[in-house]
From TrEMBL:
Name of the protein in question: Hydrolase
Keyword Hydrolase on entry: yes
InterPro entries given in the database record: AB_hydrolase_1, AB_hydrolase_4_CS, AB_hydrolase_4_sf, AB_hydrolase_fold, ABHD4
Gene3D superfamilies associated with the record: alpha/beta hydrolase
GO MF term (any one): monoacylglycerol lipase activity
Lineage: Bacteria, Pseudomonadati, Pseudomonadota, Gammaproteobacteria, sulfur-oxidizing symbionts
Keyword annotations from UniProtKB, A to Z: Hydrolase, Serine esterase
Provenance organism: endosymbiont of Galathealinum brachiosum
């Protein structure tokens, strides 16, 4: 089902880039004090987790999957964790490998289609908190991963419901969009962040031998097409960037989703084009696509300039409360 969103941008803030960038500046002092936990993995690596608070008895647990290079310090992550806590639910943010304050131990990292770590976390939660209903929210990269995870789990999904916010469901189209116009600013920022981390890891792992990548080549990477072809794909077992994008883009899997799933997209999202929007025939009966004219990328700022309201922190709990 495809529906029209009720989101209305704040007066004077309908511009997509303002919607995308403003939360970083107006919420940079948002405070959230969580409970940290580290989950050791069998491959020798680890997942850093952050709880709003540990669940008691049958308290619902809502897992948060952040976006590319996000963390608990991302304004949208802190905002939704506080909103979940207000509902009386236990929010649990899973840092993708290397995205917490500690670098991960292995040469590999994470990517848009990496569902293995989420499955490990789910199994752990079902063992330790068997009476707690589970739900999940994914933002951007985390939203794409969550939809792919839902499709892979299909009828065996333990989630009562999930919400995917601004997922880049066609990775090649999004990589193209981020290489054009003002959107190149976002690409430059994110690639710069990835490269800085990669240069640190290159000192710990023999990347020149492992994936034929030395410091000079790392510094020459300027686009997602280049980074994903020379870094993401070889580090994670793909034949190349096209193989990675083809296998990891979530749009092709939507029909296989069997439990309630809400996808929130803004038509003006500067990280993507409208080409990524699926037809209604591509959606499963349990998947609802909510389209907004405005909102930017993980923005959705309503209210007013003087009193901004962060609509996602209302809409997401509103949807999840129907199921948990």
């Amino acid at each position: 089902m495809i529906i029209k969103s009720k989101f209305t941008p704040a007066s004077g803030l309908s511009n997509a880039h303002l919607q995308t960038l403003l939360p970083t500046f107006v919420r940079n002092k948002l405070k959230f004090n969580g409970v940290n936990q580290t989950l050791e993995l069998e491959d020798g690596d680890f997942l850093d987790l952050v709880w709003t608070e540990k669940p008691k008895n049958n308290t619902p647990i809502v897992i948060i999957f952040h976006g590319l290079e996000g963390s608990i310090d991302s304004p949208y992550a802190k905002g939704i964790m506080l909103a979940l806590k207000k509902q009386g639910w236990s929010g649990l943010l899973m840092h993708f490998r290397g995205c917490s304050i500690k670098g991960n131990r292995l040469a590999r990292s994470y990517h848009s289609g990496e569902t293995g770590d989420a499955k490990i976390l789910l199994n752990w939660l079902q063992t330790h908190y068997p009476d707690s209903p589970l739900a999940a929210v994914g933002f951007s990269l985390g939203g794409n991963m969550l939809l792919k995870l839902q499709a892979e789990l299909a009828d065996s999904s333990p989630f009562k419901a999930v919400v995917s916010v601004c997922p880049p469901m066609l990775l090649n189209a999004c990589a193209n969009r981020l290489s054009k116009g003002f959107s190149r600013i976002y690409q430059r920022h994110l690639i710069g962040h990835l490269k800085r981390k990669l240069l640190i890891k290159a000192e710990l792992h023999n990347y020149s031998q492992l994936i034929n990548l030395n410091t000079k080549k790392i510094n020459q990477l300027t686009s997602f097409w280049q980074f994903d072809d020379q870094v993401t794909a070889p580090l994670h077992g793909f034949k190349g960037v096209n193989d990675y994008y083809d296998q990891s883009s979530a749009r092709q899997y939507l029909k296989k989703i069997k439990s309630p799933s809400l996808i929130l997209l803004a038509l003006d999202d500067p990280f993507m084009t409208q080409d990524i929007i699926p037809d209604e025939s591509e959606l499963s009966l349990n998947t609802q696509l909510e389209l907004s004219r405005h909102g930017g990328h993980v923005g959705f700022i309503g209210g007013s300039i003087l009193r901004p309201e962060f609509w996602l922190e209302k809409r997401i709990p509103e949807y999840l409360s129907e199921f948990i």
